[in-house]
Amino acid sequence: MSQLKLAILLGMTVALGPLALDAYLPAFPDIALDLGISHHDVGLTLSIYVGALGLAQLVGGPLSDRYGRQVVLMSGLLIFTLAALMVAQTSNLNDMLIWRLLQGIGGAFCAVSVPAIVRDQCHGIEAARLFGLIGLVMFIAPAAAPSLGALMLAIGDWSSIYLMLAGYAVFLAIVLRLTLFKQLPANQRVRTPLPTLITNYALVLRHKVTMRFIGLQALCFSAMLVFVTNASFIYQEWFGLSNSLFSLLFAANIVAMASLNIFNRYLLRHFEAVTILRVSVVLQFIALLVLVALAWGGAPYWIIAPSIVIAVGFMGSIVPNNMANALEFFPHLGGTAAALLGATQFTVAGGISAFSTTLSSASLLPIVLLMAACSLGATLLAIGAPTAVRKETARLAAIEGTPSH
Predict the structure, then answer these.
(1) Taking the CA of residue 148 as centre, how many other CA atoms within 13 Å lie in the half-sphere pointing to its CB?
(2) DSSP output for 116-146
(3) Among residues 119, 132, 384, 385, which one has the fewest Cβ atoms lying within 10 Å of its Cβ?
(4) Which sign does the torsion angle of CA 353, 357, 358, 363 carry?
(5) What is the pTM of this model?
(6) CA 198 to chain centre
(7) How far is CA 4 from CA 19, 45, 131, 132, 205, in A?
(8) Is residue 223 within 8 Å of 356, Cβ to Cβ?
(9) CA torsion 81→84→86→87, rounded to 10°?
(10) In sequence order, which ranges of 26-123 are alpha helices (DSSP H)?
């Protein structure tokens, strides 16, 4: 299968998670009114989804190593679809939280399969380029999601957004079954023995360089998710913007990420992925410091919004390079390494974003301060990241080559 076709299919798959995160953001006020809850309580449905999206990967990753990517991915799509249909029927916050939790589990099984498939296919700079191409395809979903959600609100109520999500998951299952899984080579279906499904995590946890990259991604993603969780509050409540203007400003973040993603593919021809990663993280931190200063000074939305776009945009070069480096060391345990990366990323970010909802009722400043704090931690980890990984990769591959794997 060509790299472009593989990237399109995997990009469509990994886009399911952001689509379920972003499509219902414009509906926050409607959901709050319909369920009789506060705007910030609706944010809990996002946080619990993100938390489940992370923790369930710890189960889905090893299972994909044992039973194959197809079984886990298709099961995830089925769970996601059923949960989305149930969310559309809910009438209270508790039920919505339960079904969003289940939807997150389904999304996790899908999300963890994608980096594992990439690691099955390639490594190093080639993997970074493929991750970048997947990200470029994936960015279409979060860019269009708020506008799509606003469109669904214009022709129906907020439940129609979840019916749309269920329909997309069914469409995705059909496309993947008829294309991707008919063409994957046989050696991608790694059969990890059952007794090692849990103990294999020790290999990843003991690897300090991998854990550095995992921590870095968790903190960068946390900074972005704090914004996503509070985007409706920032633009619709704090600045009083309309649904359509909110959707346009939110989409601008995705355009920035896509642009940095494209530029990153050019940079990979001349620099190591870890070098680009380090510079991107530092620049993101500087951008967030500027944002803090602007929020402190009470700047208007037309100045705040571009600052947010620049800061969030750096995720376009951070994520593909970081994922390639984090998974580089475990060629035979792609599912397990991807699961630990995804679980840490989403659970840490979910917890921090849930905490951020308690801050947003006060002002904009606490939100951007929290984003900057996360970015500071990521910067400290990036500065100490190794500049070369090839020798360490060979050493880990030799360890993984034991009979237990």
Answers:
(1) 20
(2) HHHHHH--HHHHHHHHHHHHHHHTHHHHHHH
(3) 384
(4) positive
(5) 0.73
(6) 24
(7) 21, 35, 11, 11, 33
(8) no
(9) 170
(10) 28-35, 39-55, 57-67, 69-87, 93-121
User: Would you call 341 helix, strand, or coil by DSSP?
Assistant: helix
pLDDT at site 404: 36
Helix axes 140-155, 159-178, angle to 10 degrees: 140
Q: For residues 124 and 47, what is the distance between their CA atoms, to the nearest angstrom?
A: 33
CATH number at residue 123: 1.20.1250.20
Residue 187 lies in a domain: yes
- Tell me the CA distances in angstroms from 146 to 186, 238, 254, 257, 314, one per residue in order: 39, 18, 11, 16, 20
pLDDT digits (tens, 9 = 90+) for 346-400: 788 878 887 887 775 668 899 999 999 999 999 999 987 676 554 444 444 444 4
User: What does the pLDDT look like over 147-206, one tens digit per residue?
Assistant: 788 889 888 899 999 999 999 999 999 999 998 888 766 544 455 566 666 777 888 888
Name the nearest CA neighbour of 76 among 201, 172, 199.
172
Task: Output the pLDDT for position 47.
Answer: 81
| Contact status, residue 10 vs residue 118, Cβ threshold 8 Å | yes
Q: In this structure, is residue 405 part of a structural domain?
A: no
One-letter amino acid for residue 30 of the chain: D
Number of domains in the chain: 1
CB atoms under 10 Å from CB of 318, counted, come to: 29
Lookup: tokens for 351: 């917890």
Helix ranges (H only) for 233-364 are 243-267, 273-296, 301-313, 315-327, 334-356
Measured N-to-C along each axis, helices 3-14 and 159-178 cross at an angle, to the nearest 10 degrees, of 150
CA atoms of 382 and 274, how far apart (whole Å): 9
Q: What span, in angstroms and rounded, lies between the C-alpha atoms of 113 and 67? A: 12
Of 165, 163, 175, 142, nearest in space to 74 by CA: 175
Q: Containing domain of residue 353, as a range?
A: 3-400
